[in-house]
Amino acid sequence: MSSVTIKNLTKRYGEVQVLSEFNEVFRDGEFVTLLGPSGCGKTTMLRIIAGFEKPSTGEVWIDDQLVSGGKTFIPPERRDIGMVFQSYAVWPHMTVFDNVAYPLKIKHVAREEISRRVGHMLEVVHLKQYADRLPNQLSGGQQQRVALARALVAEPKLLLLDEPLSNLDAKLREYMRFEIKELTRSLGISVVYVTHDQTEAMAMSDRIFLINGGVVQQSGTPDEIYNRPVNPFVADFLGKVEFFGGTAEGGSIHVTDWNADLPDPDGSHRGAVDIAVRPENIRMSGEPGGIRGVLTRLYYLGDVCDCRVKVGESEVRVIADGHASRGFTPGDEVSLSVREFIVFEGGSAREQLKILT
Description:
26% of the residues lie in helices and 36% in strands. With 357 residues, it is an alpha+beta fold.
């Protein structure tokens, strides 16, 4: 296992700054995800850690060794890392066995040791029965596991993965999330994982680093970053959320868009605010009381119903329990209660979001 320390790192391509003052420590044994929209700098950061790119300024340390910075540059093959690419990059003319064995062969590992280690790794990724097949005889998920086995067979201290599941179908992607998480945990390997998929990040990570415009907007556990976002961009990028304007005073927030009052979560806010409400945190019922509205649309998705409710001048999204919502139809008068919401002061969350995105 390895830790990665990044100090005052920036990256420019000509006049374009891709990463700005990146200062982070990825701890020994952690599964860290660099998350963000396309073009935010996350893959560039991964390539700098790998040694495929050099930082414009700053340093990268793996454990106590400086690998990039100043006049120091350690090439990728000497950083003791494994890397899995989005495109798999398996050799089409080599069998599964030879693909996985390749890193050991270029290190001149003894033939018997290669056979032992490749055999073990193919067992770990459930591909031992396919050892003699060519990549074009495998499914996408199997090819991805070949690439993973090849990255792990040399027993690296650090594994880097660049959107490795983006080419897979939805069910296989979900299966592989847990396969990769459990495999790396069982082997005790530190992982830096790049994705733009929030669900992948939430399911797999010990910590998430959410990047936008080359700047880390927030880092933390999935629970911290989802439930306690530091700005509207973070709230909007992770999960579903809607913003509504209001005014806070005396321990209460008057939601202007709804013409309704909600209790201030900590009673400390004053003046113009925006509340960020996740649709799964709104309960819909047919009972009297609460915030009154009219159900305008209902999409039955099996386990949940994705609903729209007209409240005042706004349309509110509600993710309701699929079984409990089966009796509702558009046009019904309903009652809403808000279980939890996030408050952003200043009343400009929607304007900030436009700037950040």
